[in-house]
Amino acid sequence: MTPHSHIAHAAYHDLLRLLQDEAVSEIRGAPSLVTRGNKAYWYDSYRVGTKVHKAYIGEDTPALRARMERITGLKSEAKSRRIERTRLIRILRAEGLMDMDRATGSLLNAIAKAGVFRLGGTVIGTHAFRLYEGVLGLRYSFDQMAQTGDIDIASFARLSLALDDVVSPPLQKVLGDFAFDPVPGLEKASTWRWRQSQSGLLVEFLTPSFEEAESIRTLPALGVQAQALHHLNYLLAEPIKAAAIYQSGVLVQIPRPERFAIHKLIVAAHRRGDDHLKSGKDRAQAAFLIEALSEDRPDDLAQAYVDAKALGPRWRERLSHSLRRMPETAGRLARLPT
User: Fold this and answer.
1) What are phi and psi of 122, to 5 degrees?
2) Beta strand extents in 104-182 (DSSP E only)
């Protein structure tokens, strides 16, 4: 396992910081803090005609609060920030980090501009795994780990309802502009998958299921329907921001790497029948991340492992099922701090 250079590591995190600065600089009105329970959330309050709109910005954190305090300066620095982001992208490409292909990058860029990631959407699956290259500063040196795939976006239905905000333009229009057509589901009038006719690229929307049935649910903030799946609530807890290398950078949201790794062990054991090839990829991605995280972030990995085992006997059974086929990975997990 080879790390990227210090130059690449610094350039990536500078790019991520500038993308987060850019997101705050795009606020149109006056930022306001709204408290719900024991948490606080920032909203952008702006007027259109006689009506006041509120656009969700994000959960209150020290980093976001600091950006709010210098919002005037961030707005004035937009041009220089874009030039610097473009320079950092050139450095990252020269250092060998994988960039997005045009089809995927342009779509993620449009989805981000519509507000999908701001409103809780999280990229999962292979594209999330690819983005850990920059997050963790690791060089992906073998092709099977870097394969692209369909774009999976997940979000909590409850969060989507609670935000009281929606993407703009509507996500169905964004997908239509990229020649994506809805893929009919088993339930009539239920569409949670979209396919691009020319490339065959598939976009799927998913949400955690808290019931026995894995039904179709609506994500009000995103304006789409989603397939409810078990285990996703664990994966989506406390997601992080990441920078996708495309044009001058795209700010997206992905799961925490330690939760992604443990979740892959669960999913690998859950697959059936013809999904054995996907199970192999799940285990390979989990093994790769666990090897890296056991060295660089052992406490985070240990906590994610403990949290997963605490979710019940079915979770522990599936973890054990995968780890019996992965003795080296099982050994690394067993040696984590307790």
Assistant:
1) -130, 125
2) 122-124, 138-139, 151-154, 180-182
Instruction: Note the Cα 74 to chain centre separation in Å.
Output: 25
Which residue type is seen at 18? L
- The helix/strand/coil state of 226 is strand
The Cα–Cα gap between 117 and 155 comes to 9
Cα distance between residue 78 and residue 95, in whole Å: 26
What are the tokens at 198? Answer: 């020319």
Q: Going by C-beta distance under 8 Å and a sequence separation of 6 or more, which residues neighbour residue 85?
A: 15, 18, 19, 22, 248, 249
User: Is 223:173 a contact under the CB 8 Å cutoff?
Assistant: no
Give the torsion through C-alpha atoms of 176, 228, 314, 278, to 10 deg.
-20
Q: Please provide residue 335's backbone torsions phi and psi, each rounded to the nearest 5 degrees.
A: -90, 5
Residues 165, 168, 171, 175, Cα dihedral to 10°: -170
**Cis, peptide link before residue 169, omega less than 30° from 0:** yes
Each residue's pLDDT, cut to its tens digit, for the chain (338 residues) gives 788 999 999 999 999 999 999 999 999 898 989 998 888 999 999 888 888 888 999 999 999 999 999 999 999 999 999 999 999 999 999 999 999 989 899 999 999 999 999 999 999 999 999 999 999 999 886 554 545 678 999 999 888 888 889 999 999 999 999 999 998 866 666 788 999 988 888 999 999 988 877 889 999 999 999 999 988 999 999 999 999 999 999 999 999 999 999 999 999 988 766 566 788 889 999 999 999 999 999 999 999 999 999 999 999 999 999 999 999 999 999 999 98
* Cα 331 to Cα 24: distance, rounded to the nearest angstrom: 43
The pair phi, psi for residue 337, each rounded to 5°, is: -65, 145
Burial class from Cβ neighbours inside 10 Å (0-12, 13-18, 19+) for residue 119 reads buried
Structure tokens at 233: 């609530």
Helix and strand counts by DSSP (H, E) for the chain:
14, 14
Predicted structure pTM score: 0.93
